[in-house]
Design brief:
Blueprint (H helix, E strand, L loop, with lengths): L1 E6 L2 E4 L4 E9 L6 E7 L6 E7 L4 E3 L7 E5 L5 E6 L8 E11 L4 E6 L3 E6 L1
Parallel strand pairs: 2-11
Antiparallel strand pairs: 1-3, 3-8, 4-5, 4-9, 5-6, 7-8, 9-10, 9-11
Length: 121
C-alpha cells in the first residue's frame, strides 16, 4: 500500500510560478515511476510529467520548457516546479506512483487526492 499526499496548489496570476510536492509513504519499491497528471473540468486526465527512480523524465508538449519534475534523494517525494503559468494550466493536479513486481506485488498504481491549481489571466 502506498499513500500519496500532494501539497502546493493554489491561486496564481498568469506568468507566475508554483511548486507542487507529493510525499509517498508505505511500501515503496526501489524501482518505480512517479508522475503528475492534471484534469480540467470537462476534460480527460492527462499526463503532465513523469520521472523514474533512475531520474529519466518525460513531459507533455504543452509544458516543456516551463515545468520541471524532480524527486528527492530518498526517492519518496516528487516535485513539480511550474513556471510561466498560463490560464490553460488551471486544473486539479494528481500525483501518481506506479511499480511492477511480477510474481510478488505485480503492477501497482496509486493516486493522490489532487491539489487545485488556478491561474488567473
Amino acid at each position: 500500500q502506498v499513500q500519496l499526499v500532494e501539497s502546493g496548489g493554489g491561486l496564481v496570476q498568469a506568468g507566475g510560478s508554483l511548486r507542487l510536492s507529493c510525499a509517498a509513504s508505505g511500501t515503496i519499491f526501489s524501482i518505480n515511476v512517479m508522475a503528475w497528471y492534471r484534469q480540467a473540468p470537462g476534460k480527460q486526465r492527462d499526463l503532465v510529467a513523469q520521472i523514474t527512480s533512475g531520474g529519466s523524465t518525460n513531459y507533455a508538449d504543452s509544458v516543456k520548457g516551463r515545468f520541471t519534475i524532480s524527486r528527492d534523494n530518498a526517492k519518496n517525494t516528487v516535485y513539480l516546479q511550474m513556471n510561466s503559468l498560463k490560464p490553460e494550466d488551471t486544473a486539479v493536479y494528481y500525483c501518481n506512483y506506479a511499480d511492477d513486481h511480477i510474481g510478488t506485488y505485480h503492477y501497482r498504481d496509486y493516486w493522490g487526492q489532487g491539489t487545485q491549481v488556478t491561474v488567473s489571466s
